[in-house]
Amino acid sequence: MVIAKNTVSYEQGPDPASLIAAERAQQKIDPVKMNYFLEGSQERSEEVARLTEQMERDPILAATPAYYDLSKEQERELTAKKIARVAQYLETNSFQEFQNRLSLIGVFDPQVGTRVGVNLGLFISCIRGNGTFDQLEYWALHKEACYLKNIYGCFGMTELAHGSNVMALETTATFDKDTDEFVINTPHIGATKWWIGGAAHSATHCTVYARLIVDDEDYGVKTFVVPLRDSQHNLNPGVTVGDIGRKMGRDGIDNGWIQFSHVRIPRYFMLQKFARVSRSGEVTLPPLEQLAYSALLGGRVMMCLDSYRMMARMTTIALRYAIGRRQFHKNGNFDDDEGAKEVQIIDYALHQKRLFPYLAAAYVASAGALKVEKTIFDTMSLLDDAVDQADDEKLMEGIEAMKSLFIDSGALKSNLTWLAAACIDECRQSCGGHGYSAYNGFGKAYNDWVVQCTWEGDNNILGVFVGKPIVKHTIGHFEDEKVVKGSSAFLNDTKQFVEDKAEEYILKSLDDVQDLSKVARALEIAIMRSSYACYQQWKVNGEDFDALGPDLVQITRLKAHHYLLEEYVRRVAEFEHKDLVPYLDLLGKYYAAGMILQHSSTYLLSNNILSAKLFTQVNVELLPKLSKEIRPNVVGYTDSFQLTDMMINSAIGRYDGNIYENYLGVVKAQNNPANDKNKDTKILVDMLNRGSLEARDRYEKSFDAAEILSADDAPTFD
Amino acid sequence: MTKNRVTNLVSSCPEPTPQEQMRVERSHTDFDPLAMNEWLEGSEEKSQEILTMYQQLDRDPILQGNPAHYDNGTHQDRELVAARIHQMAKYLETDGLVKFWRRLNLVTIWDPSLGIRISVNLALFGNCVKGNGTPSQVNYWMNYKEAGTLKQLYGCFGMTELGHGSNVAGCETTATFDEATDEFIINTPNISATKWWIGGAAHSATHTVCYARLIVKGKDYGVKTFVVPLRDSNHELLPGIAIGDIGAKMGRSGVDNGWIQFSDFRIPRFNMLQKWCRVDRDGTVTLPPLEQLSYISLLGGRVGMATDSYRILARFTTVALRYAIGRRQFKKNPKDSQETALIDYPLHQRRTIPWLALTYASAVGTNRLEQTHARILKELDVAVAKDDKKLIHQSILDTKSLFVDSGSLKSTLTWLAAEGIDQLRQTCGGQGYSSYSGFGKAYNDWVVQCTWEGDNNVLAMSAGKTIVNNVKQVLKGKLLDERMSLAWLNDAKALIDAKPVLATKADALDPAKVLKALQTLIVKIAYTTGLRVEANGGDWDKLSFPRVKLSKLRCHQYCLETFVTDLPKAQGAMKQHLLRLAQQYCASSILLPFATDFVINKVTVDEVIGAIDGEIIEDLDALIRPYVIGLTDSFQMPDNLINSFIGKYDGNIYENIHNGTKALYSPFNSQAPYNAALTAFLNRAPRDERLRFERGDYAKEQLSK
């Protein structure tokens, strides 16, 4: 039997597309309405759809499989073209619209997002956070930096020898009273600005973090706008810039290094909303040094949303593939049912246990990310108002709000970016060999992604940073009977759960595990007990917080889960499409039992949050039960992310599920089989057809040679 | 004010001196790294062989690692690897196969694409021919046609198909016997039967061993192997063969993986490999009595990947720990004159030192696996040559053991190595993300090890199932043969009834007791899993999760058993260090990650787990901390092979990064090749002008009239 359709086959091939179509036909979830939940509102969901449509049709912005074959140089050039294209949208989009656009671009081409973000997010946020309103007006509007026009900013914070510890940066800005200038200088190799996105080739200006030195006194790190290139895009004298070259990912970004050799800038190039130097060299310092780092907060918040979108994209690919791909017969019984098809891999318990936690995590992450996004918007407005109205009380309120935001965004950024990294990798492995092909998207996604765990606050440093004030609250509560306020107020209950109460289990039954409010409370108690344990250690270790580092990271993890779960529960409760609520509840339960409890099991067990017996029940009874309920709606759950084939850009992850034809089609289009000989063919053919070892040794080791060279016929000298 | 200081660079104030710190740290070493290397490699002889090869490879201008290669595109990588294959072929002619195998293992540390491209010919093609062909067939293809020395022929391994990976028995390519012409017709019946991922197929291979269903007189005899030529001696594709490049991958761009479609391609009957299965001239099929022995040819790859895991971990613990010595960040105490070295933070120690301990454990574990594999191969050859039934039976038992052990070590260790590369990268902060630190390429090249030659989950499920079945068998009173490496399961009854093995903190610090605890846990989980299978009507798939877990535990038990056995061989100060590493391995790689299981199964108690998490791991970190440089120097990896700016022996991280980067990207070129694209949008005209003022006041006025 020969079957000719689009290709000739001798036999009926597999038909993965009809599998996914059949499942899609049976969905009970309306993916359009479900997307309202994921994007926060119908309005926003529709805006996202409009933006997606625009970019999908855009000849420059749309991602294609060819993207996966680009070299570093090609990626750089393409990214520059995309930036130029984005600049045109920027001139007409509203702020929120453009923000959403960048977040979406982050799904299919994160380097464009970053390269634009370096100018708009970091450079301008730095000016906004540290400069006066007039300075902001000058650089961002008058000089048009906010439209990607005339000037292009980069963010000169990190140095070769200093990353996370911003206070220790060594570049100097020395005030020269005679000329009313600052002298910007890189004192030695360790102070070379390093990793500066956009510095290598794009940026004309840089916000430089440098130590303010006036009359030999060091006032700590402040910010300065330093021009790097003139309007002909040539480097200014005294400025040395280089490309830092190839990276694990994001090769489309021209990260560079900068050395300043006594570069002079006018005094008014210093950003002086909070810190000021007068003509005579008097220094006014800001009320809170941390305000200078507020530029980083926007990035952290954005990364939470990025994490949601990345997990959405990856689980969509992996789950669609899992529906179309068949492998082995049930329990390996090949002979039992001859002619029967192999099992769809989605139907294996192990496969479900590998993927469902990340599906649930994507849903939960969307809620948390939207909340933290709203919080930063409110907080920045509050601070702006306070400064505008010179209202000190409001300013202190804004500073308090920002401190909370530092904690919440730190906990979320670190844990969600880690979770997304793990998600990409697990989804890749779940697609077997095909997951390793570049055209299926995982490899580039992973390599581009993982820097999110490091930059703008290294995840471990953030983990310590967030965990520390929690333990300090506990210490304050017990040593000085201080009452804790804000999002950690639950710590005031600590006495009810420690010491002689420390043995008491909190989650007592499977019903408790499925009651998300109870799980959220259990997480609070886990934090109380862990924090209390840290306090006990701190008392005996000489008050050494560094020694508690590993525990602090763990506490931060619990805090992030707590934040996410609480917000998810709140959002589900207020969601207007009640028919979808049971599906959301189900994923919430899976997140609690299949992600939180598994992720931190040792910690939760050793803190007696639940018993070992109950934990076994969760694994043996609860998770298989929940999996069974999730399984029929997998297509609906992933379709609800509303990611188009362009955004997903994965041959095996397309909507139609026709995995084999799509994949072979992409491979052939990208690698024309007519070009069967490669540059290296000649090298190989020369090797295969090389002469024998004897011939190549010119027969110098042959029997003949041995005889000749060993002959004892040396002349004798008398 | 500071004075200008001229050393090799001009500085206006004192620069960091990480290289000084490295010298100081190195001076703490109180043992001989060479002696430690002998312990790690198992013998003085093996250590010497490796060091000799390191020296040759470190100096070889074609084979040595080079930071410039991190900038290679796919085509440059392919070409570089082809040139390296040629160079390696010359070593092969004089090394002999056993020694060459070691050499190939070593180059795999920094050029895994090279390793696999040669392995595809020698190990996959070659071992398939050896495992399935008659001695004369082996002699013909490997020696007479010189495939065994990478000459004339280049073989690839045509097993996986687009629609079929792990399930080899489900392959759909057909080999139909045509009695009229005495030929097999090789055919790809539909798209999913396209041979896919075939390393070397895209451009290198002249032949493939093709896994295809043998069809004779309409009957399907299942999957057998055939040598199928793909290209002629001018390297032109043969008619009926369609081949393409599968293109870009997550890593290993130096490997020309391809796809192959056969369209009624005819080969002579004698191209079938027929050590076990034969087809006569008249179409009579003889099926093999001992086909399972043919699978032993796949095991070499798994054993090699277990060893690769040790070496890649050695490479990156070296990089990360050297960086952690030189890099300073934050001051512990505001009064300190310098920031604190990363390695002096307990959290950083906890992120790095457990990987060092795991590397040591994997060194001895994989050495044992490698030695066992070599012995079994040798004994099997003797047994088959003598046709001695008893010896053949013993070899089958050994092969069965090796199946479980190699599957469990390959899957567990390649997973751990993937995680290790990533975690260690993160400990180097931003610098870890630079290609020139080595992590990125290593990770991307590495992770396919978790998937190929037996997907880790599939291998682990299979190993786990064997353990469950063995325990069930033992409990029914049928003991395992003492030859089997799992023969300790014969104590299953006693282990199930045992009291908590680790009752105190001291117990957790005794590797022998932890070994016992691990055995107990394995037996208990295997026992309950067995009961659950019986209860659910024999549905093994539902219990794949505990099966995977059992496989991981078995790997640790194997490595720890070897560690405990090998420990006494160490001399002097080494002994103390090795004991601490063994303790750390137990605490951080075994007891903590599986704490929930140890507690639930009552093999230990909460307090012990609490002590491990709260004290033991950190106390051991602090004890190991002063010797991390000596302990990584003991891997004896030369700079060119580590190929990492931040991981060099001298520890001069900043100058190495900066000078290295400058050498690759001269700052002289300060404008991008695409500078015009940048300035075009920066210096673009105002929007009104670009819209031809069609929205301006004049237009509004005129057009509204």
UniProtKB/TrEMBL annotation, chain A:
Annotated compartments: Peroxisome
The Acyl-CoA oxidase C-alpha1 domain, residue ranges: 293-467
Specify the domain of life of the species encoding this protein: Eukaryota
* One GO molecular-function entry: fatty acid binding
Annotated metabolic or biological route of this protein: Lipid metabolism; peroxisomal fatty acid beta-oxidation
Q: What is its main location?
A: other
What PANTHER family does the database record attribute to this sequence?
ACYL-COENZYME A OXIDASE-LIKE PROTEIN, ELECTRON TRANSPORT OXIDOREDUCTASE
The UniProt entry's sequence similarity note says: Belongs to the acyl-CoA oxidase family.
What is the protein name for this chain? Acyl-coenzyme A oxidase
Species lineage: Eukaryota, Fungi, Dikarya, Ascomycota, Saccharomycotina
Automatic annotation (TrEMBL), chain B:
What is the name listed in the Swiss-Prot or TrEMBL entry for this protein? Acyl-coenzyme A oxidase
* Localisation per UniProt entry: Peroxisome
Q: What are the UniProt keywords, alphabetically?
A: FAD, Fatty acid metabolism, Flavoprotein, Lipid metabolism, Oxidoreductase, Peroxisome
Annotated active site residues, numbered on this chain, are 453
Q: Which family does it belong to?
A: Belongs to the acyl-CoA oxidase family.
Which InterPro entries has this protein been placed in?
ACOX_C_alpha1, Acyl-CoA_ox_N, Acyl-CoA_Oxase/DH_mid-dom, Acyl-CoA_Oxase/DH_mid-dom_sf, Acyl-CoA_oxidase, Acyl-CoA_oxidase_C, AcylCo_DH-like_C, AcylCoA_DH/ox_N_sf
For the biological process aspect of GO, one term held by this record is: lipid homeostasis
Q: In which pathway does it act?
A: Lipid metabolism; peroxisomal fatty acid beta-oxidation
Binding-site positions, FAD: 160, 199
Q: Which reaction does it catalyse?
A: a 2,3-saturated acyl-CoA + O2 = a (2E)-enoyl-CoA + H2O2
**Domain Acyl-CoA oxidase C-alpha1 intervals:** 295-467
| Organism lineage string | Eukaryota, Fungi, Dikarya, Ascomycota, Saccharomycotina
Q: Record's Gene Ontology CC terms? A: peroxisome
